[in-house]
Design brief:
It contains 6 helices and 2 strands. By secondary structure, the protein is mostly helical. The chain has one domain. The chain has a two-stranded antiparallel ribbon with strand order 1-2. It is elongated, with a radius of gyration of 22 Å.
Length: 174
């Protein structure tokens, strides 16, 4: 009970604690990667969405994958926000709020960007008499850069996956 007479609930964490099995420098680089790369992906996506692309803007099999990628990007940004709170010792919620959200997005985004590029190539093959590669090239380069960045994030996730260790086990008497 508090001094004002109100009942006060104090929450305690009663589960395992986790940590990345990395040196402090590598952990700091991982945090920077988890924050900077998603921010760069979102900024480049916004920029290249403003670049004119007839294929992306007029054909469903090109634009759908590009615009649907917003959903995993939002999820990825939520994970990047969780990276600000990453500590050397974390609860399962901390791991979920950052690592697992970025992991899910980094599996989906490369596929969506690649499907968008493939759709644009199909569009250019079908309508080669009307449109040239020069009109679509700036956007396709941007989509390829976003594909590479999201693939890089995926590779980082795969390499870090086995480095999450339980540092404090929950005991039965707790």
């Amino acid at each position: 009970m508090s001094s004002s007479g109100r009942v006060r609930t104090v929450w305690t964490y009663n589960d395992d604690y986790y940590a990345f099995d990395l040196s402090p420098k590598a952990f700091r680089l991982l945090k920077i990667c988890f924050i900077a790369v998603p921010a760069l992906i979102v900024l480049l996506w916004i920029f290249f969405s403003l670049v004119k692309s007839i294929g992306r803007d007029t054909v469903l099999y090109v634009g759908a994958f590009w615009y649907v990628s917003v959903i995993p990007m939002i999820y990825m940004v939520m994970g990047a926000a969780g990276a600000f709170k990453l500590k050397p010792e974390m609860t399962y919620r901390d791991i979920y709020a950052c690592y697992r959200r970025i992991k899910v997005a980094s599996w989906i985004l490369p596929v969506l960007f690649l499907l968008s590029i493939i759709g644009n190539v199909v569009f250019l093959i079908i309508y080669k008499e009307y449109f040239s590669i020069q009109t679509e090239l700036p956007w396709m380069i941007g989509a390829f850069v976003l594909f590479l960045l999201s693939l890089f994030l995926f590779i980082v996730q795969v390499r870090v996956k086995n480095k999450i260790k339980v540092v404090k086990k929950k005991t039965e008497e707790e």
